[in-house]
Write a structure and sequence with these properties.
Oligomer: single chain
Radius of gyration: 15 Å
Shape: globular
Bound molecules: 7,8-dihydro-7,7-dimethyl-6-hydroxypterin
Largest sheet: 6 strands, antiparallel
Number of domains: 1
Helix content: 25-40%
Length: about 170
């Protein structure tokens, strides 16, 4: 039973970022223990970190899964590697594909490999805005509404694009 719910953050700023995200969603949905339920629009976002790199394309999707959080992390990392991600390189530098588990049910995890909820979420408009699009009523771990978090972040570098990935198209 795929009864656990997780939200995944997707990001890319190299090698046709929109295609990177679309391919990642397809790869994720192909996994027999993952079902992509919903995906936000794609957003163009100014880079956080070093500014001498391309804008990112970011999105958030909602999945159901029968994987454990660590198994899901393994699946995400193997998709990153299959799509040409190089692990070395500058901290906060450009990347072909970044897949992060943002939330897994309401689990809190503090391990070497995995921190849940994702540590940087509260300051990242390119995570909060697409998440808000698909989970507008979400209550965050501090008891505040996601809408409050969104209202406190800067939307200056963020632009919603036309692309929206429909889960139905994944099964075609
Ligand atoms: N900046 C933006 N806008 N989007 C990202 O996904 C992203 N990912 C990163 C760093 C390099 C920190 N900056 C980012 O890993």
């Amino acid at each position: 039973m795929m009864s656990d719910v997780a939200f995944i953050g997707l990001g890319s700023n190299l090698a046709k970022p929109v295609e990177q995200l679309e391919n990642a969603l397809r790869a994720l949905h192909k996994h027999e223990q993952v079902s992509v339920q919903q995906c936000s629009h794609f957003y163009q976002s100014a880079p956080m970190g070093p500014q001498n790199q391309n804008d990112f394309i970011n999105a958030v999707c909602k999945i159901t899964t029968s994987l454990t959080p660590i198994e899901l992390l393994d699946v995400l990392q193997s998709i990153e590697l299959e799509q040409g991600r190089l692990r070395e390189g500058e901290r906060w530098g450009p990347r072909t594909l970044d897949l992060d588990i943002l939330l897994f049910n309401d689990l809190t995890v503090q391990s070497e490999r995995l921190v849940l909820p994702h540590y940087g979420m509260s300051e990242r408009e390119f995570v909060l805005v697409p998440l808000f699009e698909i989970a507008p009523d979400m209550i965050m771990q501090d008891g505040k509404r996601l809408s409050i978090w969104v209202s406190k972040c800067s939307l200056a570098g963020l632009k919603r694009l036309g692309e929206k990935f429909e889960p139905e198209s994944l099964t075609l």
